Amino acid sequence: MPARLKWTDEYMKENYGDLRVKLESKYEKDFKPEGDRGMGQDSMRRFLDTYIEHDKYMVSQLPDPLSEEVTVPQPILCGSFRERILEANIWMSSGNTKSLLHRDADNAFNCLLNGTKDWILIDPVHQDLLPVAVESGSPYGGYTLINVNKVDLIEFPEFKEVPWYYANVSAGDCLFLPKGHWHQVRSYGAKNLAVSILFSRLNDFNPKGCPKEGVPPSELLSEVPMVWTYDGFEAQTMGNADPFELKDELEMKCKHAEGKLTLEMFEEDMISGLDVEEEAYKGTLKVDADEYEIPDENIEIMKQRAKAIMDLIDPENIGYYDCSQLEDMTVDTLKKISDIKDPDPANTDQYEFLHLHPNLVRKTILSSLELSKESFMEKYHSHEGSMAGAQWIFETLDSDNDGRCTVAEVKGNMEKVLERFQDSLLADVTAHQAKKINQNSKDEL
């Protein structure tokens, strides 16, 4: 793989420094680190200048220019596998990262370029022995409530019966992670760098183009038809749903809908996906769906998404989608539906403006009248906003660019600022579980 020799910090800064990447904390689901592009968003250059000293972990969709230096594992370079390569991600840190015990939806190869990784893997057939966190709907992914630093077998006695596998991965190795396998990963080394390549959950395989003996010839990632790509500047599509599976879902809906899909059907389907379903839960916890009340705001967001899907597939506003057209629906249209149906706000530089409530922003601005730029930025930063976000707000308010915001400037420009904060995130009614795990882990360090 060319990247293994080429991707020094200096080389990446010089050639890819302006590209935007996503950040996570070194402990999964702990917090969103700040970058020079905002909350959870950094330039490649800034990340490379700061990752050794700071708690930040690049967990990002691989920007397209880097794909020219990544080779694809040869076993998936023919037949159905090659046609269903979904996305590629880049993982980089200064080591000492740890994930929760979790699972991912799709098959993946994780190829390590620098450092080492320890993997613990559990077959999904043993899921009924795991304290799986409660989530809305019937997610393909998920995580457990296990404190990976100190497993509590008194609280979770069934866990001692779980068989598991261990793998130590070194630079130059690729690990195959089958769909749905539970896993926990730790990274080591002053520089830990990996690339993962995801491909579809396939139940059938067409060997078209596969050699009768051996493996297909080597190819660069830039040479294969990957479904989800990222140019390095616009919104990422990391974690977006498989459009081929989405088409299967639409076919099933059509079978039960007498050949027509309506707005009401999409609304019902998407709103029902907000519920915690006791019968869908497979784990050791006792689940009471009544404990999880779905906010009205979440229902309204889902209605808006359902309408956006109908506007896309029913551009003539007939009032329904004719299922006879489904066979000809393009992958591009399916990708657009996927992006509408379940977007990840952390994929965009808008995440910060979705994360903070406009009323909090308004109060922060009003309490900072006549303050200097530096004082305002510190105050906004104290509310978990980024310095990049504070800079944008102040420059929008400060019409005459004199470094202070007057009452008149705030009155004239407040709505311009708040407009960017109007959209809302889906409230995660189950998020408290991850926060509790991370707090327990920190208490024991």
Automatic annotation (TrEMBL):
<dbReference type="InterPro" id="IPR018247">
    <property type="entry name" value="EF_Hand_1_Ca_BS"/>
</dbReference>
<feature type="domain" description="JmjC">
    <location>
        <begin position="61"/>
        <end position="216"/>
    </location>
</feature>
<dbReference type="Pfam" id="PF13621">
    <property type="entry name" value="Cupin_8"/>
</dbReference>
<protein>
    <submittedName>
        <fullName>Myc-induced nuclear antigen with a molecular mass of 53 kDa-like 1</fullName>
    </submittedName>
</protein>
<dbReference type="InterPro" id="IPR003347">
    <property type="entry name" value="JmjC_dom"/>
</dbReference>
<dbReference type="InterPro" id="IPR041667">
    <property type="entry name" value="Cupin_8"/>
</dbReference>
